[in-house]
TrEMBL record:
InterPro entries: Acyl_CoA_acyltransferase (IPR016181), Bact_Acetyltransf (IPR050832), GNAT_dom (IPR000182)
E.C. number(s) listed in UniProt: 2.3.1.189
Domain N-acetyltransferase span(s) in chain numbering: 1-154
Enzymatic class: transferase
The protein, known as: Mycothiol acetyltransferase
Lineage: Bacteria, Pseudomonadati, Pseudomonadota, Gammaproteobacteria, Vibrionales
């Protein structure tokens, strides 16, 4: 397995994996997520091409089996929030057919290294509560709950 920077040539394989998690999110929270669409492919491609984003793929036997995207963020506007540099792990997805084989762990470790080398003091991510496997994985990786996002349907 290899973790490497994504390129525009990877977009089709990335999009195939993306559709798995996008469909799961839509099925479980249709009020918050749209079904996967071609517009999403353009969004992902724009992040691959944007130097402000770290976008990596996990590749095994010449096939992309997962990806992660993150960016650096520093609060500059809210006075009561710390102004430390943090890494926001926006998305991490591993193909359902190869989960629990170390791909997610390798992507997290690569993200942590990039964030540390960039001067970040922590990695933060958001995970939907219905995604219990992901919650368990992140907890196993050492992530702790910092807050809860709640909603009230009207």
């Amino acid at each position: 397995m290899e973790i490497r920077q994504a390129t525009p040539f990877d977009i089709e394989e990335i999009f195939d994996i993306y559709q798995q998690i996008a469909q799961k999110h839509f099925d479980n929270a249709p009020n918050a997520f749209n079904p996967p669409s071609q517009e999403d492919k353009s969004f992902l491609l724009s992040k691959i091409q944007d130097d402000a984003w770290w976008f990596a793929v996990a590749e095994s036997k010449g096939q992309i089996v997962g990806y992660a995207m993150a960016r650096l963020d520093r609060n500059e506007t809210v006075p009561f929030l710390a102004k430390t540099l943090i890494c926001r792990l926006n998305t991490i997805v591993v193909d359902q057919t190869v989960q629990a084989k170390g791909m997610g762990r390798a992507l997290i470790e690569a993200c942590k290294s990039w964030a540390f080398e960039s001067g970040a003091v922590e990695v933060r991510l958001e995970v939907m509560s219905f995604n219990e496997d992901a919650v368990g994985f992140y907890e196993h990786m050492g992530f702790e709950t910092l807050s809860h996002t709640m909603n009230l349907k009207l």
